[in-house]
Amino acid sequence: MGMQEKLEKLMQLRDQARLGGGEDKTAIQHKKGKLTARERIDLLLDDGSFEEFDMFVSRSHPESASGGEYLPEGVVTGYGTIDGRLVYVFSQDFTIVGGSLSEMYAQKICKVMDKAMKMGAPVIGINDSGGARIQEGVKSLAGYAEIFERNILASGVIPQISAIFGPCAGGAVYSPALTDYTIMSKNTSYMFVTGPKVVKTVTGETVTEEQLGGAFVHGTKSGVAHFVADDEKEGISLIRKLLSFLPQNNLEDPPLAQNDDPIDRVDDKLNTIIPDTANKPYDIKDVIQSIVDNGEFLEVHENYAPNIVVGFSRFNGMPVGIVANQPSYLAGVLDINASRKAARFVRFCDAFNVPIVTLVDVPGFLPGTAQEYGGIILNGAKLLFAYGEATVPKVTIVLRKAYGGAYDVMSSKHLRGDINYAWPTAEIAVMGPRGAIDILHNREIQTITDASARAEFCAKKEQEYINKFTTPYVAAKFGYIDDVIEPRNTRFRIIRALQSLATKKDTNPAKKHSNIPM
Fold first, then answer.
1. Quick one: which of 8, 65, 420, 495 has the most CB atoms within 10 Å?
2. What would the CATH number be for the domain defined by 19-243?
3. What are the residues facing 420 on neighbouring strands?
4. For the chain, what is the largest distance between any 2 Cα atoms, rounded to a whole number of angstroms?
5. What is the Cα–Cα distance from 41 to 330, expressed in whole angstroms?
6. Could you please report the per-residue DSSP string of 192-261?
7. What's the pLDDT band for 1 if we cut at 50, 70, 90?
């Protein structure tokens, strides 16, 4: 065979590989509203930057067991760039044996994960698979475990992002769960450990795939999905945007962006955004959008535990993670889900050198048997642990309430908060006025039989308590608040604080690893 024939053979095999499972199965994929594995990579990466590995890796498939037509393994792997920055990627191909995972399929994924670790670059996995290839038996299970081990070792070293753009069931769900961020697409993706048929057999429940593990379920109820996209194109756009806030690895700082938003821009509406009535809500996102560069805020877990808001923004071009209580939902109270959500976000920011800005308006932890039985103590401790462990720059602003243990938890000075400011509207105390008066003056209150006289007495004592205990100047007197600032200047004060902390060095005691409350 001459060189020309060999080149023609190469081109033929490449064309076959790029066809995946064939035109018919590609048409079915498109009919479902899904893109193919290669179309997804083309959208994700910069034009012309994709370099593929292992195009010709193949084992015998059920569909070509007799040695017939060549069929590659059902995952496309390689590397490319996003905004000129190196990333590694694997994209599962549902058109090839339902994207089922085999031994060689897993080896392809492991290869790009190993290279990503060596190069110190993010790895992005696009999941669309029917699960383990049954015909390979324990080899496919071993393949999953090989991937899991790499997810674990890469955790906190390089950013790992998972996109779920189709089925992801059984053991396959644990790789995305081990990564930093999971994105699901509406109506075309689902995740569950056991499918509807097994659920029906074991528990008697009748449930659809969407009800059991669709994007809405995991975006609102379980918190498995950090982002829910309307379609795959939006999901891929989210990945590109998310990476713009992140460093390549844990030894680098996040990338600075050009900024045309003046650092000394003031917003007078912040001086009046806190209602005069202490129990009246406002939207913390209005505050966030007012103070960050150009109002840009990439929210994480938008529809899960909305009583706390987390996400990425920039201050003078510097990426930061923002954690903020949300007074417009459950008064911004901390519960199990909010504590878990914020703790994971804080730990991610700390792992990848992203400074943390915390906006505090929290009345406390949610009371009740459901919370206590569910482990609010352990889950609240996760957030406490995350802030106390973090060594990145931490800037905290107390806007209104900071009561009880929730004051401590929300990046207080005592958890190595670097710069802690308060607005004049801040209320920092062991508890709110009403509860405090009921304890401090209970006997006196019980002796007043006239309802109006009792109400007048309580109102007087509450105001005395507020004046004596809850103003920010009490905390400032002890150095727990570094300054009481004018709300409209918040952006400038945060930027100056972050600039001063750019060279911060802080360490934790030497240890194998911590034992965070689980």
1. 420
2. 3.90.226.10
3. 396
4. 108
5. 41
6. ESS-HHHHHHHH-----HHHHHBHHHIIIII---SEEESSHHHHHHHHHHHHTTS-SSTTSPPPP----S
7. confident
This model's pTM is above 0.85 = yes
pLDDT tens digits, residue range 418-439?
Answer: 999 999 999 999 888 878 888 8
Which residues are paired to 310 by β-bridges? Answer: 300, 323
Read off the tokens for 495. 């930027």
* Neighbouring C-alpha atoms within 13 Å toward the C-beta of 18: 10
Relative orientation angle of helices 376-389 and 336-351, to the nearest 10 degrees: 20
* pLDDT, the chain, mean: 93
Multiple choice CATH, 268-426+471-500, 3.30.450.20, 3.30.930.10, 3.90.226.10, 3.40.630.30: 3.90.226.10
Question: CA-CA-CA-CA torsion for 340, 344, 345, 347, nearest 10 degrees?
Answer: 140
- pLDDT above 90 for 294: yes
Euclidean distance between CA atoms 309 and 304, whole angstroms: 9
> How would you write 46-76 as a 3-class SS string?
CCCCCEEECCCCCCCCHHHCCCCCCCCCCEE
Inter-residue contact 284 to 328 (CB < 8 Å):
yes
Compute the distance between CA of residue 474 and CA of residue 359 in angstroms, rounded to an integer.
19
**b (16+ CB within 10 A) / e for 31-54:** eeebbbbbbbbbebbeeebbebeb
| pLDDT for position 63 | 52
CA angle (99 as vertex; 194, 202 as ends), nearest 5: 10
Neighbouring residues of 182: CB distance < 8 A, sequence distance ≥ 6: 161, 162, 163, 164, 176, 218, 224, 225, 226, 227
Give the separation between CA 270 and CA 291, rounded to whole angstroms.
9
In this predicted structure, the answer to whether residue 64 has a pLDDT above a threshold of 60 is no
Q: What is the length of the chain?
A: 518
Cα separation, 427 vs 363, whole angstroms: 10
Residue 65 has which token pair? 């067991």
Partner residues linked to 314 by β-bridges: 319
